[in-house]
Design goal:
heterotrimer; A mainly alpha; B mainly alpha; C alpha/beta; A: mainly alpha; MetI-like fold; C: D-Maltodextrin-Binding Protein, domain 2; D-Maltodextrin-Binding Protein, domain 2; 2 domains; 9-stranded mixed β-sheet; about 40% helix; globular
Chain lengths: ~300, ~270, ~375
């Protein structure tokens, strides 16, 4: 019967309304549920089983694995990881800010993207290979010491110690910091700086009282990213740290893929790592709220 | 400030330069220059273990990104368009891999495979290439989804409505209107995810089995047992290829932007 | 460009943690009693043309595989481990389903037999066992070679650069004496039994000590030494020793001999410590979960051929237990004291024995503590 006025929808509304979102969200949701949510819950449970290894029955029994991190043999590992992360965050900030500032504010607009990307290009090569290159540079008879010997400076003993790990980590994470700081500095309103200098501020005052506060969100974001990534970094401490630079990530690796095979302790460590990361994020949010409230 | 920045540039490229230098150096151990040679490149090209590992890495990255591109884009569209109970939870789970350190994800996935997938599938599921791909899809999903969702939020929502008004089915509207608009974001997300998957060491190490090695695993093994300089040749090749691909991607993006500008102007 | 890793996801994350904690608490209570990743026996559905081998770095090279392929048309895919503990851990965590042949050392064989991880060999499928030297026909850890076939033997010692290091190294205690001079220029093996054993020997105890007090002393002594060590490594020291980064390394005899033979211009010396060291055997064995039994037997027979044994001893420099191979070796190799030490030097050496579980756990705990610091 064609008595009806022509309607917009020529197809009959036979499909239920929830079908489209379901179809869109179900595949990814299922994948995430199976390979992310369920695994996380599993290690949560496993972390309560002391000394479990493959082939054994799981019987959650207590917080032994968590208390183990407080043992004097393992607590320094946690402190060392925190030390590396905080130091790396600080170093990348100090080294990266000038670079980001230079690109965002001193380079002509049309070249900014190019310069930024060429700074970041090494990121697209294998991180393992770059860390391996640092071994070649920092070895007792490596590039650095050979160069130093040419100018009569005595050789430095860097490899297989903490400084080497810091160098490696800073190197790996500097591009990320620069990218994030650039994004924040690029949005900086130059007129504020002009106004500041018109009002008689020295460049240093303008920097600390205008530029830095304005880019605080960028600084916080970059610091958080670097902190989190460096807490979970395995390659740099493993390749550059030698026998005496155990970090949490290496410890976790050893529990599962090394000789120790203590999956319970490894799970607990993994949860502790996630906890530390969550605390960092929570702190950022608190601080972020405060700075937004008191914002310029 | 300019001097300092140039110094930092030097710092960034120092390891690359070192790798390149030693890939041409005719010496296995010494630091000094002992003559130019192509032999490490020849050695690398005849090294079947590394080539297999490289092939595995490319396979894993290819499959993982392909799967993640599809379900990740769908997910991003779904999250942008609809509200539903538990959306906050869904979103936080979806973006979890961006926040949580790799090693936690790697550990969780291994435990899941060892505890659930392998026993319940009666041994059908084994640690190997498939499990690596499955694990990689998880983080590729998140990266692609976040890149695509940034783009969706910047889109004109009326375009799709207009298409529906003109009589298109929702499916047609999706394919012919939304998808082309999202394509640059999808491609850029895929590129990002591809590179991250190629470079991943921890998640691959934990989920591999049966002697399957990806490139980072093979390289790590070699560093542990004594490196031959063909690794340097490999790194130079990788850098030039990724640099080239990246330049290509940037160029293509630049061209599409140009075309777009022209279209708007006309 | 890598995107910023967080957004509103961060805020929702806390809620996720809260909700998941609640879910997990609910799940965790009744969710016990399941088993973690048992390794199931394979259904022999593996690729019949391929053989998976899990072995030490020093026992395999492309040429060996190539000759095997010419003889049998079988392809070999191999993986490397650097200590028995790593090998056993890999097998037990379910990642060894691809391997048919494995190379456990003496005490590892005993442990794996006890855990039913090795296949009882069908002697009728093996030829060449009579080629083995008389002392290798039977062993304490595997009576009558029921599960394993000896493939190599050797000692553990110290290798050093005699030109750079003007002192003569003679014993384990030299590592401690040179602590100050050689900070981070020394390495030890990444092998729990070897390192603990060497330290025990330097204290005058047995390599296989099962006395908790003695083991504790060894641990304390190692803690003293550790800051001076560059790293624990079984294979990676070779390149660095040649390059001059490391000056004194703990090494297995075959690796030491191999390095010395390949670098005749460097004045490298291998020393078997005076107070004694470990005298080890490495063997070939078939895993009980082996996917390709036929290929595994082929490999064992291949390795027992005198011609092959001579060849690899000349190329890879490990001491062969194969009598007819030994007879065919060129004189310089036969008389190589590092490779085939005379009786007098071997006297204070001990064979590694299997530790009983409680003691093994003690070693394990100390080793973990040592390497985790």
């Amino acid at each position: 019967m064609t008595a009806d006025s022509p309607s917009r929808q020529t197809t009959p509304q036979a499909l239920p309304k929830w079908l489209e979102p379901f179809f869109l969200l179900m595949p990814a949701g299922l994948w995430l549920l199976l390979l992310l949510v369920l695994p996380t819950l599993l290690i949560f449970e496993l972390s309560f089983v002391p000394g479990i290894r493959p082939g054994q029955v799981v019987n959650p029994s207590g917080l032994d694995n968590y208390f183990r991190i407080l043992h004097p043999d393992y607590l320094p590992v946690l402190w060392r990881s925190l030390f590396f992360s905080v130091s790396t965050t600080f170093l990348t900030l100090v080294l990266g800010f000038p670079v980001a500032y230079w690109i965002a504010l001193k380079i002509p607009k049309q070249w900014q993207n190019f310069v930024l990307l060429s700074f970041v290009l090494p990121l697209w090569t294998s991180s393992l290979l770059r860390s391996y290159a640092w071994i070649t540079i920092l070895r007792p008879t490596g590039v650095l010491n050979t160069a130093l010997s040419l100018v009569k400076i005595p050789p430095l003993d860097i490899l297989n110690r903490e400084p080497a790990v810091l160098i490696g980590m800073t190197y790996s994470l500097l591009p990320y910091m620069v990218l994030i700081l650039y994004a924040a500095l690029e949005k900086l309103d130059r007129r504020l700086l002009e106004a500041a200098s018109d009002l008689g501020a020295t460049p240093s005052q303008a920097f600390w009282q205008v530029t830095v506060p304005q880019s605080l969100t960028g600084i916080a974001a970059g610091a958080l990213l670097v902190f989190i990534t460096s807490m979970g970094d395995f390659v740099n401490p493993e390749l550059l740290g030698g026998a005496s630079s155990m970090t949490v990530a290496r410890l976790v690796y050893n529990q599962f893929l090394g000789v120790t095979q203590n999956w319970g302790f490894g799970s607990a460590l993994s949860m502790i790592l996630t906890l530390v990361v969550s605390i960092a994020i929570a702190l950022l949010l608190k601080y972020g709220d405060r700075s937004a409230a008191s914002g310029v | 400030m300019a001097w300092f920045s140039l110094l930092m540039f030097g710092f960034m490229y120092l390891p690359i330069a070192v790798l390149a230098f030693y890939s041409f150096n005719d010496s296995r151990y010494s630091t000094g220059w002992k003559g130019f040679t192509w032999k490490w490149y020849q050695l690398f090209l005849s090294d079947s273990r590394i080539l297999t590992a490289l092939a595995n890495s490319l396979l894993v990255a290819g499959f993982a990104v392909a799967i993640a591109a599809v379900i990740g884009t769908l997910m991003a569209v779904g999250l942008a368009r609809y509200r539903f109970p538990g959306k906050q939870l869904y979103q936080s789970v979806a973006y979890l891999p961006l926040i949580v350190p790799d090693i936690s994800i790697a550990v969780a996935t291994l435990v899941f495979l060892a505890a659930v997938a392998i026993p319940f599938s009666g041994g059908l599921v084994q640690l190997g290439l498939g499990t690596i791909i499955a694990a990689h899809v998880v983080f590729c999903l998140s990266y692609i989804a976040i890149v695509v969702s940034t783009r969706i939020n910047a889109l004109d929502p009326h375009l799709e409505e207009a298409a529906l008004d003109l009589g298109a089915t929702p499916f047609q509207a999706f394919i012919q209107v939304l998808l082309p608009e999202l394509m640059p974001a999808i491609v850029s997300g895929c590129l990002l995810a591809f590179v991250l998957s190629l470079d991943d060491f921890l998640i691959s190490s934990f989920t591999t089995g049966g002697g399957v090695k990806t490139l980072p695993i093979e390289i790590f093994g070699r560093i542990r047992t004594g490196v031959k300089p063909d690794i340097n040749a490999l790194s130079v090749i990788l850098i030039t290829v990724t640099g080239f691909l990246f330049a290509l991607a940037e160029y293509l993006r630049y061209r599409t932007e140009q075309k777009r500008q022209k279209r708007f102007q006309n | 460009m890598p995107p910023r890793r967080f957004s509103s996801a961060a805020i929702s994350r806390r809620r996720f943690l809260q909700t998941s904690a609640a879910i997990a608490a609910g799940l965790a209570s009744p969710g016990c009693g399941w088993t973690l990743a048992e390794v199931r026996p394979a259904d022999a559905k593996g690729d019949q043309d391929k053989l998976g081998i899990y072995t030490w770095e020093s026992y395999i090279d492309p040429e060996l595989i190539q000759t095997f392929r010419t003889q049998t048309a079988l392809d070999v895919a191999y993986d490397i481990y650097d200590s028995n503990e790593v090998m056993m851990a890999t097998i037990r965590s379910g990642k060894g389903t691809n391997y048919s042949v494995v190379y456990p050392s003496d005490y590892a064989v005993a442990e794996m037999i006890g855990k039913k991880e090795l296949l009882r060999l069908d002697k009728s499928r093996i030829n060449g066992l009579e080629n083995l030297m008389p002392e290798f026909q039977n062993s304490a850890f595997d009576p009558n070679n029921a599960y394993s076939v000896p493939v190599s033997w050797g000692t553990t010692g110290l290798i050093y650069n005699a030109d750079e290091l003007k002192i003569d190294i003679t014993d384990w205690s030299d590592l401690w004496n040179l602590k100050q001079q050689l900070t981070r220029r020394m390495t030890m093996l990444a092998d729990m039994r070897e390192v603990m054993g060497a330290t025990l020997k330097s204290l005058g105890y047995s390599y296989n000590s099962d006395n908790p007090a003695e083991i504790q002393q060894a641990y304390d002594k190692l803690t003293e030494l550790k800051p001076a060590l560059a790293t624990f490594t079984t294979d990676a020291w070779q390149n660095q020793l040649i390059a001059g980064d490391y000056l004194l390394c703990m090494a297995f005899s075959m690796d030491a001999v191999s390095v010395m033979q390949e670098n005749p211009d460097l004045n490298l010396r291998y020393v078997i410590p005076k107070s004694g060291t470990s005298l080890w055997n490495d063997t070939m064995a078939i895993l009980s979960t082996a996917p390709n039994l036929d290929a595994a037997y082929e490999w064992i027979n291949y390795m027992l051929q005198p011609a092959i044994a001579v060849d690899i001893t000349k190329r890879l420099f490990f001491a062969t237990p194969n009598q007819s191979a030994y007879d065919q070796l060129p004189n310089p190799l036969r008389n190589n004291q590092s490779l085939f030490p005379p009786e007098a030097i071997l006297k204070p050496c001990e064979r590694l024995t299997n530790l009983e579980p409680k003691i093994a756990e003690l070693y394990d705990r100390y080793w973990t503590r040592l390497t985790s610091k």
